[in-house]
Amino acid sequence: MLEGLQKSLGGRATVYVAAICLIILGLEGWREWTSRSAVLGHSEEDIAGLAHAVHQHAEDTFEMASAAATAVARGLDRQHRTPELLTRTAELMRSSVSASSRVVALYLFDRDGNWLASSEGLPLSAEAGKQLVQVFGERRSYAPALGEPVRLGAGSGPVIPVARGIVGALGTFDGLVVAAVEPRELAGFYARFELGPRDYIALATASGVLLAHSAGGAGPPQPGDPFVLGTLPPDPGTSVLRSPVDQVERIIAQSTASRFPVVAEVARSMQDLLAPWLQDAMQRLAVTALLVGVLAVVGLRLADQIWRRHRSEAVLARKESEFRLLAESAIDLVERFDADGRRLYCSPAIEWMTGHKPEEVIGKIAFDIVVPEDRHVVDAAARRLRSGLTDAETITYRVRHKDGRELWFETALRMAADSTPERPGVVGVTRDVTERKLLEIRLADMARVDGLTGLANRRAFDEALQREVARACRTRRPLALLMIDADRFKRFNDDYGHLAGDACLKAMTAVLARHGRRPSDLAARYGGEELVLLLPETDLTAARQVGNEICRDVQALGIAHARNLPWGCATVSVGVAELMLDATAPHGGTSLIAAADLALYDAKAQGRNQCVAVSRTEPTSRLAG
Q1: Which residue blocks in 75-176 are alpha helix, DSSP H?
Q2: What is the enclosing helix (H) or strand (E) of 363?
Q3: Cβ neighbours of residue 145 under 8 Å, at least 6 residues apart?
């Protein structure tokens, strides 16, 4: 019996020792794994920081090149090129290159890609300039832009062009100033960092064309290159990838510049980064005596964490109880959403605001009741919050009540105080602003409508004219304007009274509205008894036909006007003009009104009750309809 007891105790002791050894080994393994993760974490931070430094250096370099090209281009904008101007430009180019440590040359090309001047004073082939002008000229923008590596000379290496377009005297593209940056200058900066034989730094365009790398060279990645440009997800941070070329597992970080579309990529070998940690880990595993101390420290730390967690949960429960009490007593709707926009909580105010009970909407997408036309406003605010661009948003949108009514809501969104990257949360406070919004809309409509005729007023007409002139200039489509004036209207008011005059004007307005049937047409009261009809996509011939029909339809109303001889009834005179799509187009709104007014004057002078149109090709002539 005693022997059996001893065996039992020995077995238990063996089990206990084995258990303790396993626990120690398990804890040590966990600690070493944590240490490895920390090494990788610091390495990832360093690599991400280096990627940021590389893209910042590239952005600074391209900014210098952009500034140099812009300084030269501004001296040529809207200027007539003379030999003296080109000589001064070449001198400015040479001084700019001398003052910059990163720009190796400046070149000037005309609109056809022909070489005009450079900081080196050496002419280039037409092919080099045409290639650049073709690429940068198609962008129709005069802002500095970055191009892909190009060879500007037969014996020269590739350079990275930063170009700025030149504005001609007529506001058109008139040439290109190119600042050249050598990839070797960027590679020289990369050489300052300590890199292993399997590490690299690379800079490329957003489309994946290589600009520079630590081994030198530029252009599309070649077979055998380990670069993974364009294969990483767009989210910031680092990734671990194994190259299919050399089978090396690397930590890779990419950083995107904000000013120029370039991507900096830094890659470090995982094996090289972990080599020091692996050596230390093997030594630590040999010192088993320290593992007991590690076990004690870990135990105390776990106990402390458990105590802190229980205390935090108690505090959180108390605060949540207080929050619910406040939310359920508030008039405004208080809600909480998860990262996908699903309601986690909503106060009872939701029932009287939307007709839905809280239990009906918990767990559902919060903005399903938003009208489709306003959904993009809500989605955009949610994206800005999720991406971290802002921590608070206030949006106004329409929702559909359960009974079908359309209401206006205003919601203030803010990231929850306990939100984490792993569990993001959003808190929203919503109020019903329907009455305020409807009042704003009604006031805005009243400010754009003429009180007597119900047509658009002068303010609305001026806005529409400016908008349609810009569109006509952009699309090169016709735009016509009819100016209508009641004949001898002052005599009509004198004979029949102002109330009858108002009624007559309303009747003419109805005729005008019938002829402006398209959604883009605009009939408006210009002032007094003058009316206007704006007809987009209408040439002079069609507009004159409309004017003649208006004259006939108004006369057909048969409104008595004894002193409007020889007709004895109310009539109108119409002046028609078409927008001239030429160099005066930027001021076309004013000139179009002036031309239509002059045509109206001619219609009056030629006997009234007729339509006179201004010829589009001969502004001084008149065409009577």
Answers
A1: 83-99, 126-137
A2: none
A3: 136, 139, 162, 163, 164
| Inter-CA distances, 351 with 354, 356, 357, Å | 6, 5, 5
Give the DSSP letter string of 547-598: HHHHHHHHHHT--B-TTSTTTTB--EEEEEEE---STTGGGHHHHHHHHHHH
**Which band of pLDDT confidence, cut at 50, 70 and 90, is reported for residue 607?**
very high
In a 13 Å sphere around the CA of 558, the CA atoms on its Cβ side amount to 0
Is 119 a member of any domain? yes
Instruction: Kindly tell me if the per-residue pLDDT of 424 is higher than 80.
Output: no
Q: Mapping DSSP to helix (H, G, I), strand (E, B) and coil, where does residue 624 land? A: strand
Contact indicator for 104, 182 with CB cutoff of 8 Å: yes
Of the chain, the end-to-end C-alpha distance in Å amounts to: 132
Cis peptide before 83 (omega within 30 of 0): no
Q: Is 91 assigned a catalytic role?
A: no
Locate 389 and state its tokens: 């661009």
Residue 260 per-residue DSSP state: S
Indicate the pairing of strand 200-205 with strand 210-213: antiparallel
pLDDT of 231 higher than 70? no
Active-site residue identified among 529, 549, 578, 618: 529
In terms of domains, do 437 and 464 share one?
no
Q: What are the strands, taking DSSP E only, across 270-355?
A: 333-337, 343-346
d(CA 547, CA 534): 12
- The answer to whether the pTM exceeds 0.70 is no
Quick one: 437 and 468 in the same domain? no
Instruction: Kindly state the helix (H) or strand (E) to which residue 369 belongs, with its residue range.
Output: none
Torsion of CA 141, 147, 151, 153, to 10 degrees: 30
Is residue 15, in this structure, part of any structural domain at all? no
Please name which of 351, 333, 322, 331 lies closest in space to residue 413, comparing C-alpha atoms: 333
Q: Which domain holds residue 185?
A: 41-286
